[in-house]
Description:
Blueprint lengths: L3 H12 L38 H23 L7 H10 L2 H16 L3 H22 L2 H12 L7 H16 L6 H31 L1 E4 L10 H13 L5 E4 L2 H10 L3 H11 L11 H17 L5 H6 L7 H32 L8 H16 L3 H4 L5 H16 L2 E4 L10 E7 L5 E8 L11 E6 L2 E3 L2 E3 L2 E5 L15 H18 L20 H6 L6 H4 L14 H9 L5 H19 L9 H9 L18 H4 L9 H19 L4 H13 L5 H9 L5 H7 L6
Parallel strand pairs: 5-9
Antiparallel strand pairs: 1-2, 3-4, 4-5, 6-9, 7-8
Helix pairs in contact: 1-3, 2-4, 2-5, 3-7, 5-8, 6-7, 8-12, 10-15, 14-15, 14-22, 17-18, 25-28, 26-27
Amino acid sequence: MKKGFLIMAISVLMAGCGGEQMPTVQLPEIDTTNPLLAEWETPHETPPFDQIKVEHYEPAFDTAIAVSRAEIDAIVNNPAKPTFANTIVALEKHGALLNRIAGIFFNMLEANTSEQMQSIAMRVQPKLTELGNDESLNPDLFKRVKEVYEHPGLFLSKEDKKLLEDTYKGFVRSGANLSDEDKELYRQYTGELSSLTLQFGQNSLAATNDFSLNIRSAKRVAELPDFAKESMAEEAKARGEKGWTVTLKAPSYVPFMTYSSQRDLKEQLWRAYNSRALGGKFDNSDNIRRITTLRLQIAKLLGYECYADYILDNRMAENTPTVNTFLEELLAQTKEFAIKDYQTIAAYAAEQGLEDEMMPWDFGYYSEKYKNEKYAVSDEMVKPYLQLDAVREAIFMLANRLYGITFAPAENISVYHPDVTAYEVKDKDGSHLAVLYLDFFPRESKRSGAWMTEFRSTSEENGKEVRPLVSLVMNFTKPTETTPSLITFDEFTTFLHEFGHSLHGMLARGKYESLNGTSVYRDFVELPSQILENWAYEKEYLDLWAKHYQTGETIPAELIERIIAAKNYNAAYGNVRQLSFGMTDMAWHTLTEPYTGDIEAFEKASMKPTQITPEIDGIAMAPAFGHIFSGGYAAGYYGYKWAEVLAADGFSLFKEKGIFDRGSADKFRALLSSGGKEHPMTLYVRFRGHKPQTKALIDQMGLSKE
């Protein structure tokens, strides 16, 4: 391996400065044996996971941070007049080595972590925060940025102007205009915040892994589907236990709650799941109070009344009143239907012999039974037609029908875990488009949920296009010794959802990484994912590939009709549940004074307008609500519903023109490839022809009162 990447980092910086004379840059000594610091002589310059060891990360971070500092010094000390090229583009291109290392490490921290990785993260994160603050609070650097912003010169493209605007605004939003005293406070707040959000995520994962329920009685699991029993038996075996073990991970927890009638066991599980990291050795309560306080203090330093005002100033929704009105209007239009959904299931449970009041841990079981009876459809009926391998190929086929892209296994590309598979993605003209990594199954080292991420995004370097490295991480039911991985219909839609995000990354085009792919407003980023879920309910699509994994029989038309008929089953209930998450998120982030009270009490109050099920003491979702306390959705969870409106309205074009219509797909591809180069509403209207309306979502859920 070579040390060429460091040389390239500086040469790119100089090239971005239009060939102007640059000051001498003193690079740190490097360990050329560290694969993270070397040139990657791999297919498409993919990470050499087979060579990277945990002990490589920390020294690589230290070196890359030093390189980033040298690059910033070169920009600041450039004797030439500040220009778009020597300041704005140079800033955009700097930190390439650090971004490469961080892109691997922090993705592995989520998908394949260890105690050693978590310890490294706690040591590295403060260094990264300090570096970010040293850059954004550097008065000489901001002076150059501001001069270019105020005197941009001629001949900037629309893409260039957006980069300039975003760069200037990013400095301002990161404290560049603060007094020296307030800059120091900003450093303190952001430094502590970065460590706390990391600790929050680690506590949540640990609390999830910490609980399991071992069942020894065969009678207690007799009613469960074979796949659930087999999975639980394998879990018990792996733990050295007898019988069957259920955990709080979704592929284990959800089937048990759905198919078991054992109320006492389900109550234990439900309470454990809904009180993760609330008290006990992994308690996140203090972390929540401190995180929200720090966010509030940062917002006030920057001139905002609350953190939501600060966040939404850079979102499609634009301000707090708009978001609150949006959530309240959706709640007003759907809550009465949600109450009816719940009452219907409660009445059915009573008919089935439930003598007590239906509790939250009963809902999944009776809801599934009622759906099976009313629509004659259940997960067990559908799963044989959803073998994971077939679903994967069907989703690849859908992308090919819409966009002409193809996927081929790339065995020559190193992966980070035996469960992971890499694919080379080619465009319709045969050119290389992306590398896609698929990571399907749960493990102790992976957090729960499903997500799309990137090891590298799209950009241009010295006139050459750099294509993305995209990863999809999920937690689907693992195959057993006797049965392949058969996924539920909900898992199928989850796959489509995350794959929609991956298309946003893989189809990106543009010069600047910060404007490409999913680098868009947070309340716009869910449109590509949510619109793709709609194909799951299209007979024309399912008929092409959904076959029984044992018999090869095509999925019966009658079963598809039942799936479609059941599409909006409990839709209002599910909608209000999502609104409750958005509303509690907004409650936490519209605080104008630090909160020192009880976490559970705060949550009960914030969710009261959406409360439908009986209130249960001793629970709270906030301590495990990673989206808003350790992820990027603080004051932004409403974005899922916001994007649902866009997706419902957008998919109606495909319903009108045809679900495989290339003309409509080409328009949507243009939206995907544009990333954040234009305002999302401009992109949406160009695709759809008009602005979206909330009515589209209400109609799609079948809740219109007309």
